[in-house]
Structures are given as C-alpha cells and as structure tokens.
Amino acid sequence: MTDTPATLVIGATGTTGSRTAARLTAAGHRVRAASRRATPVPDAEPVRFDWYDPSTHGAALEGADRLYLVPPVGETDPAAVMLPFLRRARAAGVDRAVLLSSSALPEGGPGVGRVHSALPALFESWAVLRPSWFMQNFTGAHAHAATIREHGTLWTATGEGRVAFVDADDIAAVAVRALTDDRAPDTDLVLTGPEALSYDDVAAIMTETTGRPVVHTRVSHQAMCDRLARQVPPEFAALLAGMDLAIAEGAEDRTTDTVRRLTGRPPNGFRAVAAREAGAG
User: Fold this and answer.
1) Domain that residue 85 falls in
2) Digitized pLDDT (tens) for each residue of the chain, 281 residues in all
3) Neighbouring-strand partners of residue 131
4) Distances (CA, A) of 167 to 83, 119, 174, 230
5) CB 44 within 8 A of CB 25
6) For the residues of the chain, what is the DSSP string, one character each?
7) How crowded is the C-beta side of 50, counted as CA atoms within 13 Å?
8) What is the largest CA-CA distance in the chain?
9) Among 33, 70, 144, 171, which is most buried by a count of CB atoms within 10 Å?
C-alpha cells in the first residue's frame, strides 16, 4: 500500500467520473475509483462505494485526501444522503472536495444546492462545478440519446429556449484543475460550451452528424412531467420538467469563459463533439 494520498472519485464509471479518473491517472495521480460494484478502472484502485450503504464509506476513504463528488442519481434530497458522508470524510482527513452540481441549481437551492451551500464550512478547499446540460445527453445512455436512436425524436418542454451545452470532457478537465492545482477555486464554476443552441438546432446537428433524421417535438410542461413520471419518481420528474420550463424562459441562454480560464483552451463545440462521438459508435 502506497502512502501517497489519493483522490477518491465517486461515480468513477459515470460520464464525468470516468473522464476525471482517466485524466488524473494519466497525469500520474493516485486515484481510488469508487462505484457500487468496484468496477475496474484503468490505472486506478477500484473500491466499492454506495451512497446508501454507510458500511462502504470508511474503506473507500482510506488514503484519500480529496474527493470528486457525483451525487446519487435520481435522489430528490441528496443532502440527507451526502452530508453524513462528507462529515465523515472531513473527520478522516479529506481537505479538498469538488462537487458536481448543475447550472440550473444555485447554492442553497433544491436538490444538490443544499450540499453546495454546506461545502465551504466542511472543507479547507473546495469547488462546485455547475455545468450546463451535457452534450453526451444526445450520444450516451441518457433518455434523449435513447429516443434519438429508437425514434429519431427529442421530446422537450423547452420551446425555443437555448442551452450552451457542454462537453463532459471539458467538465473533467476543469475538475482535474480544481482537484490538483496548488490553490483550489473555493467558489462555484458555471461551465458551458461556446454557443447556446435550441433543441431544434440540436436536432438539425444530430441529423447531419448521424445521417438519420432527428426532430424536436415540443410538448407542454405538464405533458413532459407526465412523460418523465413514467420513467423516474414523480418528485424527480417534476424537478426535471421544471428545468425544461426554465430553459424555455431563458435561464440557460448564456455562455461563460470558465473552461478557457481554467484549462487555457476554448470549450469544445457541439457539432465537433457530436461528430466525434458518432464516429466512435
């Protein structure tokens, strides 16, 4: 067992966790890759971790001095699940934490917003990543990607609203800087891509890059809530449908320079990422 401190990456097999773990190990950092099944991750130490099973928490924290935190998926009150673990992590010697949140969730707001507000008092150094919606939502395992593959359709209640979708690779690049720089950001960071796009724009780009017709079907807020409630718990469905409504009202129609400031390069554009991931199968 090495005495070199490690970064515990929670959600190490997920969209941003896997990319963050890969970038850390490629740069020579020790990584403990946490997942519910302790799935092997290249060049990292696999550890079993389940937010809902405190018996997995102590072993996962062994040797870690910093955390990358992906909240439990689908949990409407993540603070109740996460804060006891974060207090345990601080008592175990963790002094830096980087939390994945969302541009739609402000400090102290619903969902992970409560964890965001607690983080500065818990850790000596910290950052909250608040990315816009992921570009990978249209190419990976997300429901949007599934409906594109199966039906050639995107259903949303976003209307003409625009989003500056962000590449998960860019989120991971910022996460690594926040975890490893001599000085942590000690603030929240809103991450976006280089341009704001409507879902009509997304459908057109996906049609071009996949060679298959993709259309954006606009539905009402209530219809979207009902549709989502067939896939996730009603409370979480209402939260997600509410985010669509916020997009329709312009809440995500913005870009930031955060990726460029933290990484020294511009964020990746949607068309390039869609083409890259379509080419990768």
Assistant:
1) 6-132+167-191+254-263
2) 467 999 999 999 999 999 999 999 999 999 999 999 999 999 999 999 999 999 999 999 999 999 999 999 889 899 999 999 999 999 999 999 999 999 999 999 988 999 999 999 999 999 999 999 999 999 888 888 889 999 999 999 999 999 999 999 999 999 999 999 999 999 999 999 999 999 999 999 999 998 999 999 999 999 999 999 998 889 888 988 999 999 999 999 999 999 999 999 999 999 999 999 876 65
3) 191
4) 28, 25, 11, 28
5) yes
6) ---S-EEEEETTTSHHHHHHHHHHHHTT--EEEEETT----TTSEEEE--TT-GGGHHHHHTTEEEEEE-PPTT-S-HHHHHHHHHHHHHHTT--EEEEE--TTS-TTSSTTHHHHHHHHHH-SEEEEEEE-SBGGGGTSSSHHHHHHHHHSEEEES-TT-EE--B-HHHHHHHHHHHHHSSS---SEEEE--SS-EEHHHHHHHHHHHHSS--EEEE--HHHHHHHHHTTS-HHHHHHHHHHHHHHHTTTT----SHHHHHHSSPPPPHHHHHHHHHHT-
7) 7
8) 56
9) 33
Instruction: List 136's β-bridge partners, or say none.
Output: none
Residue 35: inside a domain: yes
Q: Is residue 146 assigned to a domain?
A: no
Give the CATH number, domain containing residue 103: 3.40.50.720
AA letter at 167: D
d(C-alpha 64, C-alpha 9), whole Å: 10
Question: Residue 139 corresponds to which tokens in the numbers above?
Answer: 């190419």
pTM, whole model, 2 decimals?
A: 0.94
Examine residue 203 and state whether it is found in any structural domain, yes or no.
no
Q: Is residue 234 part of a domain?
A: no
Alpha carbon distance 18, 14 (integer Å): 5
Total domains, the chain: 1
